[in-house]
Amino acid sequence: MSTPTDAAAAAALSAHEQRTARIEKSLRRRHAAERRFRAFGLAAVIAGLSFVAILFASILSRGLPAFWQATLSVDVYFDPEVIKVSDRPVRGAREAPGAFHERTMAWRTELAMVNWNRLLEDSVIRLKPELEDSRRDVRALFTSSERFRLRDRVIEDPSLIGKTVRMNLLADANVDVWLRGNIDRSLPDSQQQLRARVRELADKLHEEGVIAIRFSRALFTNPDSRSSPASSGLAGAFMGSLFMMLIVIFLSVPVAVASAIYLEEFAPKNRMTDLIEVNINNLAAVPSIVFGLLGAAVFINWIKLPLSAPLVGGLVLSLMTLPTVIIATRAALKAIPPSIRQAALGLGASKVQTVFHHVLPLARPGILTGSIIGVAQALGETAPLLLIGMSAFVANIPSTPLEQSTALPVQIYLWQGNELRNFFEARTSAAIIVLLGLMISLNALAIWLRRKFEVRW
Amino acid sequence: MADMTAEPISKPKPAFETLRAPAAEPGVAKMSARDVRVFYGETEAIKGVSIDIMQNEVIAFIGPSGCGKSTFLRALNRMNDTIEGCRVTGSVTLDGKNIYDPSLDVVLLRAQVGMVFQKPNPFPKSIYDNIAYGPRIHGLVSHRSELDEIVEQSLRRAGLWNEVKDRLHQPGTGLSGGQQQRLCIARAIAVSPQMILMDEPCSALDPIATAKIEELINELSAQYTIAIVTHSMQQAARVSHRTAYFHLGDLIEVNATDKVFTQPDHELTEAYITGRFG
Amino acid sequence: MSNLVLIAVLLALTAVAYQIGLSRSRVLAGGGRGSSRLHSRPGYYGALVALWCALPAFAIFIVWSWIEPLIVRSMLLADFPGVAEMSSHQLDALMRRLHSIATGFVDPATVQPAEAEAAARMQHLQAIGQTAKIGLMAVFAIVGLLYARSRLAPELRARNQVEKVTRIALAVCSGIAILTTVGIVLSMFGEAMRFFSFVSPLDFFFGTKWDPRFSSVGTGAVGSFGLLPLLAGTLLVSAIALLVAVPIGLMTAIYMSEYAPAWFRSFAKPVIEVLAGIPTIVYGVFALLIVGPFFASVGEMIGVQIRATSALTAGFVMGVMIIPFVSSLSDDIITQVPRSLRDGSLGLGATRSETIRKVVLPAALPGIVGAFLLAASRAIGETMIVVLAAGNSPLLHANPLEAVSTVTVSIVNQLTGDTDFASPQSLVAFALGLTLFVITLGLNVVALYIVRKYREQYE
Fold first, then answer.
1. Does any domain span residue B143?
2. Does A398 have pLDDT greater than 60?
3. In the β-sheet with B43-54, what is the strand arrangement from edge to edge?
4. H-helix or E-strand spanning residue B89
5. pLDDT band (50, 70, 90) for residue A316
6. CATH code at B238?
7. In a 3-state reduction of DSSP, which class is residue B15?
8. Mean pLDDT of C258-268
9. Residue B8 domain-assigned?
10. Are the beta carbons of A30 and B137 separated by less than 8 Å?
11. ∠A385-A386-A389 over CA atoms, to 5°?
């Protein structure tokens, strides 16, 4: 080869090597940046995962112990000398409801006059006769609602009078707190919740096994209670939530599915339906508290429905769930390929027949999943319910959707504000465990249904 | 027609220039593949291909659709690495160095072996920033003036300079299809690769744009080694020095383009070029 | 006959009507074989008769049940002594008392003669009303049934008519969704306007003091109703939440889509999604019991006074709640950036992080801004976390370590408890709600518009 080309070639070669060297120099820095970026990403994911872990671990660790409560296991003798009541009134054939009602009230008054506490105290004193002089202290061991439990058992079964029954009776909340060490034992008497003698008695009975920390179903079976915190439970809240969820399922889901069907299959594609779609998307993003305001203004103030009733709560939650289920149903309907519809129409089916006989059955899994998820979300909502009056204390289990009631998330809210913090912190966490358990089951059901019926187009 | 007039004598020599690849002795392979197999999961898409690509040649890969030409092309700059589940065995060497060696930096490799894709894919940035992207990330320039040089040189080489010199800061996506593809070629040239891989670069373009690009390929071949996948036999005949025929993942024949299209050695090649199957 | 029984009877009658229509149509077809003579399948004829039977009767039921109590009430109260001076609350109470007297649950000794008379009359009127209702419904149901049956013929396009009713029913249902929005806007607007009759809008929107003392009835507007401290609190908490959620959420999305191996993705994604399903009250308790004290003790260690319930606590936990929201939105948006752009960048020799930072993210920017706005809207509307964990101090300041009060907290505070609905203290909740609604709506609309424009770019 001639020299100029050689020289040019050599020059090009060295320039090339220069270029490559320049690139190589930057490589280290760039790869370090790559590693940092990647590490940042991994750190973010790990942060998210650890938040989940910390949340669940802390709630579980605080809440699980609340399912075990200090309980006295004693023999209760239904002393006929103490329980002096007449027989339960039975309604006469021609008796007016008002008159019968009066008689029942009188009988109940009799029952109320019975000194049930004495029966409770006796059950312990029988074991330790020396406590005869400190009845007051013994009484303080029991939570105040247990005397009503005895009364209710006699109402149910009057033949108990004269018999002895072994019962597990809940100890007072402060006894529970004391025995579990949730209160600093070294605090002086003025800062303790229990009198010194009661505390001693509790320790002694605990050593002897009369009082033990046992699994208690009180959390599940009892309604809320102000006077007897140890026996406060979620039953009332659960029924309230149940009524509301039923209303949501029977009101919101059909209306939402019908709306979605109309909007997706029948409505003409014009500006109006566009506007409706935008409207629904926006509704889905409206803060839940605004729905509470709507409920307060329209349902309570204008239509004058009863305050704090599950009916109102159910209506408000239904309105909130509408957009979610509409969007989920529309997505399920959109996922079905047009070929199905065209095949049906081609065979001579009408639009309505195509939709109800062909499209809808195929969309069923998606609709089901979306509805369950919507209901699960509604189950956990608190703010709108507070605005329709559910922030008050309700002591009984509602039997109809029109009675005053509370709901699971609201109950959690009420409990966390209770003054008896050592006791109610754990109980609140336990209530959260119940709520989360319900929601996780619902979501798991939804996911299982989706997997089972999933059709891949 | 690309504008490749020489600069007027009064203009000072540029401080920086997109390089021409060094000429090597004739007969030395720029890139050699030996028994390359590419697997997508369990499926073997490329079944043991061995081929040499010579310095400064234009080699065309032809074959019916789905025969693995693009897959093989992507194996040459390790773009298959970005596909999950894709595995490559065998060896591919660039200037004697195995590019699948774990110690080799993929980033460096791709700066040396550039790629132009089927559908033009300019970044949603200005024309200037599109070209400047490569040099910037590789740290090739330290002054704005050097970058300006590279941008101008690349655009000139790609035959696009006169059409866009007044609107360098407008978005690259605002150009026509043919212009976008030339922009992508300019972008690839800006990092001064030694080899350019082109994966059906004209399939999304109209005939006039296609013609311009083919002219461009002819000119670029003086400085770069080019491997081009094409489904058009006529295009292969127009631009390439050698042609390789692929069939269902196997390399059937590699020869000078004239020979492949007039007297192919293998009967499958002949069947394809005479149109017995497409 | 109680309402429930009445509805049950109507349903039974409807079922009978269906059966009548069904068998009649079969007869018209000339026996089982001839059903091809009919325009529609026999079931549709049955459905048509059933609809004619049920719908008019049901309409009567609804209208009558709504109007009857109003008519009875006005008839009773017209003659009742002392009605003119009573407030609407007292009138409601009177009606309830009359109802209890009529059902025998009030001690006879306390009943006034006028009340007794009114109660008796009420029972009488209600009995008449109920009988009339039943009668009318029965008449309409049967007439409807007979009419429809008489019109049955093979050429009758029963299916079309039934389907038309179906379509109307579907359309009505979708109308309810719109009605909801209208209802929200109107009701809140109405109540907010009533509020503004007590307190001027300028004082509300630009006031810097929030101190709505609970007044007893009749003292009018006592206290200050300035929005700014609440707005400041809302913005502070939301800003902290976004500061936590956006980096973590965005980087999570990037890592999951670009770097994570498939097994990691399939395990980590659902776990992080769990964060989205946890009710906000749980987050609130979590913040109150665990996060707050944690921050307070950290503060102690470094010598800074951090309150356990503060904007920081609430904002942090709110941020954790929003992480999956940001993450899944970002994931959607990033995967919409076409692969070809990524390939182009990688083909030039860029590293993955360079590709993401310099090509993918800038291309995805409008979508990410939209996601950011949506997340902000979510944070602004959040209630329970702030109620429990932000303290309750509606002062205008910018210190995240101190307690704040937000718009949502104030809404809850003003409307819970026994309050007179007509006082400004309660009505301000609606003004607050309206403000909240407008802000979140504005953010959502802008965000969805940006995201839609962005999607169109790539389709």
1. yes
2. yes
3. B43-54, B29-40, B86-94, B97-98
4. strand B86-94
5. very high
6. 3.40.50.300
7. coil
8. 89
9. no
10. yes
11. 90
User: pTM of the entire structure?
Assistant: 0.85
In this structure, which amino acid lies at residue C267? F
Is B1 within a domain?
no
The per-residue DSSP string of A344-374 comes to HHHTT--HHHIIIIIIHHHHHHHHHHHHHHH
Q: How many CB pairs under 8 A join A and B?
A: 40
Cβ–Cβ gap B139/A9 under 8 Å:
no
Nearest to A16 among B19, B108, B139 (CB): B19
User: Which residue in B105, B107, B192 is closest to A19 by CB distance?
Assistant: B192
Q: What are phi and psi of B227, to 5 degrees?
A: -115, 125
Could you give the ipTM of this predicted complex? 0.88
Which among C104, C252, C351 has the least Cβ separation from residue A98?
C104
Contact A98 C251 (CB under 8 A): no
Tally of domains in chain B: 1
Q: For residue A273, which of A262, A263, A259 has the smallest C-alpha distance?
A: A263
Q: What is the pLDDT of residue A384?
A: 92
Search chain C and give the residue with CA nearest A28: C351
Cβ neighbours of B259 (radius 10 Å):
13
pLDDT digits (tens, 9 = 90+) for C183-197: 878 888 888 888 888
B205: nearest Cα among B188, B185, B219, B221: B185
C357 contacts on B by Cβ (under 8 Å): none
Conformational region of residue B215, where left means phi above 0, alpha means psi within -120 to 50, and beta covers everything else: alpha
Is B117 or A98 the better-scoring residue by pLDDT? B117
pLDDT tens-digit readout, A94-141: 777 778 888 888 888 888 888 888 888 888 888 888 888 888 888 888
Distance from CA of B19 to the nearest CA of C (A): 16
In the DSSP assignment, the letter for residue C31 is S
Q: What rounded mean pLDDT belongs to chain A?
A: 87
**Single-letter amino acid, residue A178:** W
Q: Which domain does B70 fall in, by range?
A: 29-273
Q: Residue B253 falls within a domain, yes or no?
A: yes
Kind of pairing between the strands at A68-77 and A211-215: antiparallel
